[in-house]
Amino acid sequence: GEALRLGERYMEAARESLSEATAYLMPLRAACVVIRLFAGDVDGAERMHADESDLDIAHVHHHRNVPGLVEGQIALARGRWSEASGHLGGAIASLRESDPRGLLPAALALAAEAAVWLGDVDEAAHYREESLRQPVPESSTIFGRRRRTLLWVGLARREGDAVDQALDAADNAAAADLPPAELDSLHVALLGLADGLPTARELTLADVADRMAAAAKRCDGLERAEAMAGFAHALADGDTELTSAYEATLAGYGIWTNPPRQQTVALTRREQEIAPLAAAGISSRDIARRLTISTRTVESHLARIYAKLGITSRAELPAALSGR
């Protein structure tokens, strides 16, 4: 909450002063868009990004944003993973040429996450390795953000230390008094435990859910926090109906709960996009709108997905995608 208030205050100052500060108006706007995405205000982030009124201040030199970096994050939040991958690929290419703000490690981590949702876990691992090779000071916000984003790769690849890596990240965030980061790390740990991944700790789903609830209460302005805690408790309680309801709510906040696993069945790239959206409870009409295809096309893809996975309904989709 405080970060967004500060960002918007600086934006107003940059607009009004028409001074040296005005040159940073566009990066400030981009930062505010990303903060809104992080908070779960995806609609607000999209509106702010689409607002071109600041471009009228054309006679002042602007520091340019990295093309595709913000657009890629919006697409990730909306579940448009092919689009996200394309935007982030462009951003990475640009950052390889010039990266004065040290954004390449974060962009590579985001590309790894996009690859996870597209079901390409090998590409995700490749991006993870390259991101981790980039030097980032531990004091940098990018260091923690990169670490949390890359947790999804271990989860999707069903790595033996995926849960413990997520719990370690949560512990580090708690020690630094960063409850949103703690909550996000615990979310990955929860999904891993629910999927049967091992942990060296004496922990149950209920334990993780309780800790998520405590962290959520300490999150200032994080719109998605309460729903994440509710999802965790529903999952721990084995309440499939409530879990599905929370999954649909979280999808509206840009938070996803069903990363595709390495599967013996081969889903096409479009099917890999549609399956997790449907599993999250999003209607065929809304999926069609997000992917700019017809509702009939979505239903046709879903029919093929069901046949490949050996299921007959959406209700079975989350478990089928998780390999349970």
TrEMBL record:
<protein>
    <submittedName>
        <fullName>LuxR family transcriptional regulator</fullName>
    </submittedName>
</protein>
<dbReference type="InterPro" id="IPR000792">
    <property type="entry name" value="Tscrpt_reg_LuxR_C"/>
</dbReference>
<dbReference type="InterPro" id="IPR016032">
    <property type="entry name" value="Sig_transdc_resp-reg_C-effctor"/>
</dbReference>
<dbReference type="InterPro" id="IPR036388">
    <property type="entry name" value="WH-like_DNA-bd_sf"/>
</dbReference>
<feature type="domain" description="HTH luxR-type">
    <location>
        <begin position="260"/>
        <end position="324"/>
    </location>
</feature>
<dbReference type="GO" id="GO:0003677">
    <property type="term" value="F:DNA binding"/>
</dbReference>
<dbReference type="Pfam" id="PF00196">
    <property type="entry name" value="GerE"/>
</dbReference>
<keyword id="KW-0804">Transcription</keyword>
<keyword id="KW-0238">DNA-binding</keyword>
<keyword id="KW-0805">Transcription regulation</keyword>
<dbReference type="GO" id="GO:0006355">
    <property type="term" value="P:regulation of DNA-templated transcription"/>
</dbReference>
